[in-house]
Amino acid sequence: MPSPDDRAALAGRDRGLLSDVEFVALSGISKSYGGTTALESVDLRIRRASIHAILGENGAGKSTLIKVLTGVVRPDAGTVTIEGAAFAVRSPATAAAAGIACVFQELSLVPDLSVADNIFLARGTGPLGFIDRRRQQKAAEALLRELGSEVRPTDIVRSLTLSEAQLVEIAKAMAKRPRLLILDEATSALGEQQVGRLFEILRRLRSEGVSILYITHRMHEVDTLCDTCSVFRNGRHVETFPQGERSPDAVVELMLGRSVSQIYPAKPAPAAGQPLLDVRDLSWDGRIDKVSFVVRPGEIYGIGGLDGHGQQETLLALFGVLRNVTGEVRFDGRSVHIGSPGRAKGRALGIALVPEDRKSEGLHLPLTIAHNLTLSVLNRLTRFGVINGGRQRRLVDDLMRRLQIKSSSPKAPVSSLSGGNQQKVVLAKWLACDPRLILLCDPTRGIDVGTKAEIYALLRRLADEGAAIVLHTTDYDELIGLCDRVGIFYGGTILRELTGDALNERNILRASFALATDGPTDSGGH
Hints:
disordered N terminus; 6-stranded mixed sheet
């Protein structure tokens, strides 16, 4: 019997052989929507037992490519072959029958069903038309355990956090035992531990011969995980190359079609003067435990650490969403009781919150872009209950110009925008209030690199103009590249504060696990 080392070597050899075998091939795939070309004569080869990254800006054609492969849309021209045989992917059912499963960026879960019901929603019933609940829940529990999730199969999806729901979505795809697994920004809502666990699973699936198509805007994930990269731009397949053959800057330039000298704006000298925000021993419900930190005008203060250690609750407490918060918040030198979002965003304080989930918490999707942009300041645009149309149009035009929101008309529904432009609308809505303190929760999640650079420049410009910014992000590169100081949360409190040369990936990771860090750091606070 071969030893574990022998088996590992055999698996590696077999994967090497399989990775030279073409599994899916697309030839001359084109798709248009009216006068807009989403895909133009795309040729793409996906090998077996490989992890293949698809990179490109929003609007590059990635989503349409996924929809073609999963049978959501039919191409106008071109062919798809699976293992050398022509295959017509006419519907999601035919794609599933061919072994294709997808984790879409926008969750496809049914909120009022249980986790187990969602995972096996498309699997049908038993021989007599009955669902074997016990077997279903046992299988769901095994999948969730494999992903490192503590969610129970009986939990109702509506009660889950965004990261928990994302893991259920991944479990739903894995339950289909796919031969081609497509992941579209599947880690955007996950914490570092969850991402690491998912990567272990994806590598195992690869070793078992599964092909994986991986769509992400996080370049470090591509470096860590993928074998091959394909870049798309303006609906066209630009280039495919082995991972590591192009530098990150070269890949970004392929995506954008232009040179990018610097993604992150230069950091100014450390902000001086009195803090605008002074948080002292903030606590709530056992999830926030004596959090203390200060933020000065002109400063971007980062909040990091493993997901679920009190970061989001701290932002919600500062915006007046949570009740029974203890501790003291001093704003511009005086102690304040925020109490409610209405008081937070009022003229006396001027606090804005960009929430984690733009679709469910930041936007009213059926309403127009113009309505969404002005919702936060309607009281300033109305008189005797009537909106001043001229003032509203001028404000909307100004906001769309300042944030370069791309749309045919401000009267279009905000749901028609790309993810990056939707996030710009959320930001612009709050900028209309002229906030002094801006709280952001993962504001670039699922956004392409070009739009990220625009948002980074905007945040630095707002800070330069005197705003104080608190940024919670799960992206280490953002903490390092954008923030002036970073507080690392652990167990509901700020365990370390990193700045200068100490603000690096190693120290962020070590502090996130409550390990000692290299170089001088503060313990948070003042």
